# Entry
Amino acid sequence: MKTICINCPKGCELEVARMADAAVAVSGNACPRGEEYGRNELVNPTRMVTGLVRVAGMRKPLPVKTKTAVPKGKIDAVLFAMHQTTVQLPVKIGDVVIPDVAGTGVDVTATANM
# Structure
């Protein structure tokens, strides 16, 4: 599998392969973070998710994000949960808006004060 590392500005082109003994081989990385990224992309790819949730009584939505990365296969469920959520004011940056979103064990937090 070929991929581009997004862990630093270098954007190394990685070649990632699963070996016969279930080990993962990564080449093309210029730093250890690239090797870790490549391995994770093959075994369990994850992404941070950002979005908006409704605020009761207001037209302006609240920007939110996942506290840590979630599995790529759960992104649609995370976005659906964000779409279904309405928060009550006041909200501060870092407040948990959706705990354990989509059963991932990851919280969705506010990224703005309202």
